[in-house]
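Sample pair:
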Amino acid sequence: MKIQLKLFASLREALGQSIEDIELPEQIQTMQELKDWLGQRNERWHRVLIESKNIRVAMDQEMVEWNSIIKNNAEVAFFPPVTGG
């Protein structure tokens, strides 16, 4: 399965990239599994994705829960909480 991962705001800055095309292993089915798998890349990814508790996720520009099933060719976006005023 392929996805396009997009990172926004402080996540983009901390990881030094904004977009990445990724071929997922078969065992990665949910957003939580994706986040955990990416967090194993190295210490920086672990710190940003696993140790941060307030990351939000969207698929194809719609907010989803961490237990959501990833669709093939989906655009998956990780971002910190957004505040406005």
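The beta strands are 2-7, 19-23, 56-59, 62-63, 74-79.
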